[in-house]
Design a protein that fits this description.
By secondary structure, this protein is an alpha/beta fold. It has 20 helices and 10 strands. It has a 6-stranded mixed β-sheet with strand order 6-7-8-3-9-10, sandwiched between helices. A 4-stranded antiparallel β-sheet has the order 2-1-4-5, covered by helices on one side.
């Protein structure tokens, strides 16, 4: 059966459409349960109007046994629809878990403000709504007209009263949706802001404690926390008012329906059994609407979570699994590339044109703030706001499947992030452990002998974010991870920042080994010791290329510019190159 166009908006709606058979089953069991909900009404009518009049114990026994059997069928239908929805919720989580995981991290990487933890919370919210009592209200609501019809059959005035109270409850539900949605979303956003602020400061607890910054940061957190409390209090107060009015209407309905039934009995237009049955029937008819009003916060939360997931999966769809490319060789071309960031009036990189051949070692120089680290991220395809073309082997780097491309790339950022696990797991990028490649990468990074001195060698746990390691050890492990598996393109951002002389010598040897294997290396540094392994140099200043070419030519130009600067400005000659 072809999927309707409406459900092709995203993987979320498309996945929900695949559960249509389960929803049809829930609808069927809801029909059975709601039809059998008339059993108590019919039973009371028979007891009050027939059994009490005939005083037949056999009739009472037969009616009681039949009603008990119907209650059993009704309970089975209620249990089955719950079971179907619970299983559907588990399947939904299994189907969407990977897509949400990938999309949330892509969104976080693109600096759209998306939080992976929030995305999974949204998925849980949608799943719990689909398996909770709230969804049953929507399946039960269509049967309210049936109950109203039975009320009209008992007496028209009872039916009219039921319709009036149904309209009142529906109006209250509409009012709740219109006036509680925005405050609830604002409260949720304020709470998330306060929580994110606190979590970001906990990651730097040592700095905060050592420099006495706790009090100042606590004041800032308190301001955010107070704002979130105020928003939450406002939203909860409005929701509680809606619920209070709902209770008032429900209790009023129960009393007035009983009073109306009593008047009809007094007037001889209704039997006592009909009076009791009408009260129960009207309560049952309005129960779904009352449940919707009472659980409106859950409906709002689930709707907002659904909308965020919808937007996330539309913005970051699953890449075509059939798309597969040959392993890249490492040719990099940048054509008119500019990179910017939110909040900046000028771009970080401007009009970058660069070609890096396979097997080339390019060393990038430049003062702080010149855009070197941004260039590294652009080369890796992880900087979100880029114009121009960044090509890997002639293809846009953003068009590659990241899971497929990842093993062919190596990246060592300035801020080295290690993960809880063993040394071997971190070097192997938490993939399937290949002991030979792990040891080869560690040896190439000059780390093998260091690791063997750890208590458990390569199986030594490093703690959360590598907290048990020194800065130099973390940098070497990050280097070993970057070259693990002999990737075609390796980008190293300040790889010698925390290394001593022995570590820097090991780094030089690592780059020489990688170069000998024909791999492309882009190395960003401030320290001159690594220049000996460079084939080409690139000088960045204020986001623009000041010089680029073979190492010796660029160094000669820099030296000439430095000599010229010391002797005074030249009146004629070649264009000046600013010294580093």
């Amino acid at each position: 059966m072809k999927t309707p166009a409406f459900f092709q908006r995203s993987e979320l709606t498309a996945t929900l459409w695949t559960f249509r058979h389960e929803f049809l089953m829930v609808g069927f069991f809801s029909m059975v349960a709601n039809v059998l909900m008339l059993s108590p009404t019919l039973y009371m009518l028979q007891v009050y109007d027939r059994v009490m009049a005939s005083q037949s114990e056999l009739t009472l026994l037969a009616m009681s046994l039949l009603t008990l059997a119907l209650f059993g069928v009704m309970a089975f239908a209620e249990w089955m629809r719950s079971r179907v929805l619970v299983r559907a919720g588990v399947r939904l989580d299994n189907r969407l878990g990977t897509q949400v995981f990938n999309a949330s991290f892509e969104a976080h990487l693109s600096q759209t403000g998306a939080s992976p933890a929030r995305a999974f919370s949204d998925l849980i919210q949608v799943r719990q709504f689909l398996t909770g009592n709230g969804i049953f209200a929507f399946f039960d609501a269509p049967w309210a007209p049936i109950y109203m019809a039975v009320l009209f059959m008992l007496h028209p005035w009872l039916g009219i009263m039921g319709v009036v109270f149904a309209l009142l409850q529906s109006a209250l539900a509409w009012f709740g949706h219109r006036h509680t949605l925005a405050p609830s979303e604002a409260a949720s956003a304020a709470s998330a802001d306060a929580s994110n602020f606190l979590q970001s400061k906990l990651r730097n607890a040592e700095i905060i404690e050592s420099m006495g910054m706790l009090g100042n940061l606590r004041q800032r957190w308190a301001t955010r926390h107070a704002a979130s409390l105020e928003q939450a209090s406002s939203a909860q107060a409005l929701t509680h008012r809606v619920v209070a009015w709902s209770k008032f209407i429900r209790y009023t309905q129960q009393s007035l329906s009983l009073a109306a039934g009593a008047l009809l009995v007094i007037d001889g237009q209704l039997s006592p059994g009909g009076m009791i049955a009408a009260n129960v029937l009207m309560t049952r008819a309005l129960s779904p609407i009352d449940m919707i009003v009472s659980g409106w916060r859950g409906f709002i939360a689930a709707g907002a979570a659904f909308g965020r997931l919808e937007k996330l999966l539309i913005g970051f769809p699953t890449r075509d699994a059939a798309l597969s490319r040959t392993a890249p060789k490492g040719q990099i071309d940048l054509r008119d590339v500019s990179a910017s960031a939110t909040g900046r009036t000028s771009p970080i990189l401007s009009d970058i044109n660069l070609s890096i051949g396979v097997g080339t070692v390019l060393v990038v120089l430049g003062p702080s703030g010149s855009g070197k680290s941004t260039l590294a991220r652009v080369l890796m395809g992880i900087w979100p706001q880029v114009t121009g073309e960044v090509l890997l082997d002639g293809l846009p780097v953003g068009s590659w499947d990241r899971v497929e491309l990842g093993p062919h790339l190596g990246y060592l950022p300035q801020d080295i992030e290690l993960f809880e696990g063993t040394l071997a797991e971190n070097i192997a990028r938490f993939g399937e452990l290949d002991s030979a490649q792990v040891i080869e990468a560690a040896r190439s990074a000059g780390l093998h002998d260091v690791i063997l001195r750890f208590p458990k060698g390569y199986d030594t746990p490093i703690g959360e974010a590598g907290a048990l390691l020194s800065g130099g050890q973390r940098q070497r492990i990050g280097l070993a991870r970057a070259i693990y598996g002999n990737p075609a393109l390796i980008v190293l951002d300040e790889p010698n920042a925390n290394l001593d002389e022995a570590g820097e010598a090991a780094l030089v040897k690592t780059v020489q080994d990688v170069k000998a294997k024909g791999k492309t290396v882009v190395l960003i540094t401030h320290r001159p010791g690594i220049l000996a392994v460079a084939d080409r140099l690139l000088l960045l200043r204020d986001g623009r290329i000041q010089a680029e070419g073979p190492r010796d030519e660029v160094l000669a130009g820099l030296q000439a510019a430095a000599n010229q600067a010391r002797s005074g400005p030249a009146t004629t000659g070649a264009p000046q190159v600013a010294p580093v």
